[in-house]
């Protein structure tokens, strides 16, 4: 296996690319009530901008991941970043809700490449504990992005208005293109044969029939999917029901981001003494406790900032323990289709967030939805890890001979 980028460079580029998706999703959540007024629209229509972004992001990963296997990581990333840039400009200059909806859909399609390529370039070059360390950094941005973004979005909204949020995204797109063009090396040999329908379907069939991949991906979906799901609910709970201003909401979300950051730092220190897998049960314990507390506070108490954010922060702390190993384990057996595996993992992860947001819209009452749906995600994550452990005992993680030693390290 030839290393084309250092561990540090791969970590930085991967973290930046993966952050684009959640940042674009969450950056403008403080502006949602303002957008209702600005376009004289309904709350349901503005919520649809999140749903369309989720949908575009989730489904486009299936294309961007496979395309990166076919034409290479760099060309695929540049193509989709150009799409993201176009969507950001559409949203910034939107004269109506319809154009805003279209812009958000295009943004989601473009941003999808960041998550798939970030994980793929890690699997192209690294396995074992090294890959887990990089995934720890990427996981930090994957969850820290939607945590910090509302703070930045709330400040931008208060100072410059809602359009400024989309101009920030234009700047992110330009930075991504510059980074990929001048600093990111190509980590895979393009294979045009993988672009035909038969090998594409065969690759997805291989993934979905492998219980190691499905179970580990569902652990991630239950953990990180909750982040995307509650991002659609928290603005309406904390702003509309608790009474925070958009700026207060943005600053208040620092509680979530702070606890998640503490979790990632803790995990990085603990990985000096423990294997990444050994940290997963601890993270699931935090997620389980947070789920129970949130279910109680949202059903038995009146919504307040602490009643909402203490369990949310605890859940985010637990996610930091789960992600490094589970992401590495999900992709480890599939070096030959790393882009496709990353795409399917991201699709399931984002799709779970989309489903959670849709269920919240059906429930109607934001606090009730938060206290029911998010604990459900916690149950899915814990149950899937039990399934994963049983599966790996029967089918240990294995790959071609050149990578066997590194994978044994990952499976410790």
From TrEMBL:
Entry-linked InterPro entries: Efflux_drug-R_Bcr/CmlA (IPR004812), MFS (IPR011701), MFS_dom (IPR020846), MFS_trans_sf (IPR036259)
Keywords: Cell inner membrane, Cell membrane, Membrane, Transmembrane, Transmembrane helix, Transport
Keyword Transmembrane listed: yes
Gene Ontology biological process terms in this record: xenobiotic detoxification by transmembrane export across the plasma membrane
Family classification: Belongs to the major facilitator superfamily. Bcr/CmlA family.
NCBIfam families: efflux_Bcr_CflA
PANTHER family assigned: MAJOR FACILITATOR SUPERFAMILY, POLYAMINE TRANSPORTER 2-RELATED
Protein name (database record): Bcr/CflA family efflux transporter
Source species of the chain: Sinorhizobium fredii (strain NBRC 101917 / NGR234)
């Amino acid at each position: 296996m030839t290393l084309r980028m250092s561990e540090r460079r791969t970590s930085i580029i991967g973290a930046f690319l993966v952050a684009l998706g959640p940042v674009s999703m969450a950056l403008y959540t403080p502006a949602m009530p303002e957008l209702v007024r600005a376009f004289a629209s309904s709350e349901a229509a503005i919520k649809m901008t999140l749903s369309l972004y989720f949908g575009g992001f989730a489904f486009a990963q299936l294309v961007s991941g496979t395309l990166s296997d076919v034409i290479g990581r760099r060309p695929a990333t540049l193509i989709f970043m150009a799409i993201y840039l176009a969507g950001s400009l559409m949203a910034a200059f939107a004269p109506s809700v319809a154009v805003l909806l279209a812009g958000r859909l295009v943004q989601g399609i473009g941003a999808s490449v960041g998550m798939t390529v970030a994980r793929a370039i890690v699997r192209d070059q690294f396995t074992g504990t090294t890959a887990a360390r990089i995934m720890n950094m990427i996981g930090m941005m994957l969850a820290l992005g939607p945590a910090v973004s509302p703070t930045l979005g709330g400040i931008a909204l208060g100072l410059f208005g809602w359009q400024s949020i989309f101009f920030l995204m234009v700047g992110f797109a330009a930075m991504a293109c510059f980074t990929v063009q001048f600093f990111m090396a190509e980590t895979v040999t393009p294979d045009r044969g993988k672009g035909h329908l038969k090998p594409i379907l065969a690759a997805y069939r291989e993934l979905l029939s492998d219980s190691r991949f499905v179970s580990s991906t569902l652990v991630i979906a239950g953990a990180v999917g909750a982040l995307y799901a509650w991002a659609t609910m928290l603005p309406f709970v904390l702003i509309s029901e608790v009474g925070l201003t958009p700026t207060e909401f943005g600053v208040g979300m620092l509680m979530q981001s702070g606890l998640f950051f503490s979790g990632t730092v803790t995990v990085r220190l603990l990985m000096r003494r423990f294997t990444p897998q050994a940290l997963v049960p601890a993270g699931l314990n935090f997620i389980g406790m947070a789920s129970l507390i949130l279910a109680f506070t949202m059903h038995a108490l009146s919504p307040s900032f602490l009643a909402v954010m203490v369990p949310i922060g605890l859940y985010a702390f637990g996610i930091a323990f789960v992600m490094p190993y589970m992401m590495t384990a999900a992709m480890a057996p599939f070096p030959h289709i790393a882009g496709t595996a990353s795409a399917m993992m991201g699709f399931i992860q984002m799709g779970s967030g989309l489903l959670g947001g849709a269920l919240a819209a059906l429930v109607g009452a934001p606090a009730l939805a938060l206290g029911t749906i998010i604990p459900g995600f916690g149950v899915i994550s814990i149950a899937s890890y039990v399934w994963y452990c049983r599966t790996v005992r029967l089918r240990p993680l294995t790959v071609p001979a050149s990578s066997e030693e590194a994978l044994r390290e990952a499976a410790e």
